[in-house]
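Incident log, structure service

09:12 report received: a user says their structure output differs between two submissions of the same chain.
09:20 pulled the input from the user's history:
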Amino acid sequence: MITQILFQFTSAAASIGRVNTSSYRVSRQFNAIAMGAVAADFTEKFLRTGRPDDLVGLTLFWVLTVRTLLILGFSRIEGNTFRRRIACAAAFFVCTVTSIAGQVYLGHGIGPMTLVPLAGIGLGCLGEASNDMATRRRCVLGMGCVMAAFGLATEAWGLVFKNLVSDVGATAYSMNKYRDWPLSAIRSLAEAQIDRFERRGGQRKACRRHLARGPCACEREAFCPLLIGIDGY
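09:34 re-ran on a clean worker, output below:
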């Protein structure tokens, strides 16, 4: 139990460090530490419980940790679009093969706890393979949500914290900053609703002033906010 808490704390601390640095390389290093801690956490849980979903977690995150270390060691991988896409495809292929092989080894079929994290890894790889930053942010956001759900299902709290902070939270902030869809549409809708309520509030005050003096023109036309129930909106 103490070892598990230590791994989860390490993952959480590295996730905070990842979003607090402005250096891309340092961010990658923190990410490698966070994923290594998550992989170690899944390994400890699998050795203790033998659960198939823990085996999926440990295989996926050890593969992703090694991939991140290779990227840090060979910067030319990210310097070229073709090499980066090959690395993403290779990582997804290895994750898929090892996850399915682990389930077969344990005598289990391919269930949701195998497909859900693979879907998350697939979204992450699609995002990293893209040169369009808006597409990349949307894919990372989707990956963070899916992997956080997998972490909740497997009680991997370090993974949940990592994805909610350094993937979902940081990506949502960037999407809002650069006005990416769908956050831009949600923001525009919210601003339109706020403006609508402000205008209705101003009209209601005007009608109350008119009613204090006598019949209101908009009341005679049945458009007075007091008559259509503005307070119930």
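09:41 both user submissions now match this output. Likely a transient worker issue. Closing.
09:42 reviewer note: Confidence is low (pLDDT under 50) at residues 217-233. Residues 2-178 form one domain.
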